[in-house]
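Example complex used in Figure S2.
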Amino acid sequence: MANFFATFPPMWRSVPALAALALMSTALHGCGDRDPDRTAVIDLLPEQIGGWTRSASATYYDRETIFDYINGAGEVYRSYAFNQVVVAVYAGSQGPDITVELFDMGGPADAYGVFSHAREREEAGIGGGYEQRGRVLCFWQDRYYVCVASEERTADSDRALLDVARAISQRLPPASDPPDLVAMLPGDGLVASSQRFFHLHQSLNYHYYLARENILELSSETDAVLARYAPGSTYLLLVRYASDSDAAGALTSFKRGYLPDAGESRTVETENGMFVSYGSRDRFVVVVLDAVSETAANDLLQATLNGLRQPPN
Amino acid sequence: MAKDNAALTRRDFMKGVGGAFLGMAVGMPEPACGRVTQPATSRVVLIRNEHVVSGLNDYDGDLIQAMLDEALVALFGLESPSDCWAQMIRPDDVVGIKSNVWRYLPTPPELEQAIVRGVLGAGVSEENVAISDRGVLQSEVFRRSTALINTRPMRTHAWSGVGSLLKNYITFDRPPDYHDDACASLAKLWELPITRGKTRLNVLVMLTPQFHNIGPHHFDPSYTWPYGGLIVSRDPVAADAVGLRIIQQKRRLVFGEDRPLQPTAHHIALADTEYGLGNAAMDKIELVRLGWTDDSLI
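Predicted assembly (611 residues):
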């Protein structure tokens, strides 16, 4: 945090510097061992990983203070059941510092969700899956989403990130499967690593801008997965609502807002020459977007409806 | 065209309702019909230098000063940079320079100091000048400011599409209040008592822009490139629109496909169509190009 102001002439920086101190004070407040929740979380991070030593202090951010740490992008975490994140730095005698962020996402589904939010590739071997890009490695495991970042990318930093991530993974509860909704997606044509699991309207618009209004009536009570399919760049949206009536209401709202010209048809050609199809079963709503043909839209819709199942009681 | 903007859908953008460039902002092809607001044009100066960037956050301060000087002369059509500053700033002004301190890609201190020199050269006393980002509401200078200068680097952003000049004013209020719909209402920040009508100059830093993210908030230098540019305008919307086009074109080149920003940066288009703050459509922007022309991407 102090680095934010390190490079600026002091005469122009007095006010921000004071603000930064206040911010650091807020972030550090209550981070001692007396807070049982925080003690439990920090204990998940080993004090020593090979030649890397965890710093004595760590910083914590919750749903309210997350913006102090990552500005507006905090909304990504808040769109899930994010509880808190602990940030700790590992220093080693060889190589740059490594920063570890351990996000408590409230449950495995949302840990997967935030992992899926922007991952471009996924590899197995750490937790429920991981992605390493540049100087950052992120993985999800149980209710935790973990990011390990090297201050610089060096010849050894990729290896160091893997070592640190694996050591932390060993401290966490066992890895879970992705949410059951993700497993209901048809396999044929599915683009690898394209599944995005989320709950809210703004998350849908992040991945696929559908409408300014929440015409699918998404909420924290809904689970949704969006995935890309070949051929073309077809999107499949599968939403599970809290009840059958909620799903029926959402489908009516979607038809009224997005397909007012559908009439009784389940498939509509849109202005870009692509096809939208939609359907529902019980608590589920399925929408196929930007399919290359009417047949492709209907086939993907039907395959999805056929694969739906209720969670076990 | 009569459709309420609050109810706009992706299909409306396909039809051209809501503005051609708004549709483009959400990744749609440009439709045939345009929009009818903001009749005035906006001048935007894009100046580049192939030697100004030595590395990420490693810049030649003398060249930045020269670039800013040349850009101002072109923007205002005056004889000298000092004439431009004298037109923007009065000696009795109280000037807040709204900067950006994001750790990985801050506003270059060399640029901040070039702006300070210009302001002081216009006759403003030192105690009436401040640079700040997150401390603007606590700054005595910003609270009594009569003029603002807005500067920041452009970068992709996980909640607003891009970190823009428009977004740079978010610390003038409570940031979460502007997060809805991918920060669609950022232009409202320019109507706050502390900002309204005060902005004299916008400098969008395109020295090493960031064109892609890792995850929701991580940074990697491999997603920046040495573009070596500054975009200078009195219209923040127009400057952002030019910067956004460059970012989008860079993404096309790198990814080999038209990959829209996630989320879309529609706050820039909406600043034009809904808030009338400036011009986002390229046919309303008079783009003046100076300096290095290779790979300008626009």
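Residues 31-171 of chain A form a domain with the Protein Transport Mog1p; Chain A fold (CATH 3.40.1000). The CA atoms of residues 38 and 46 of chain A lie 14 Å apart.
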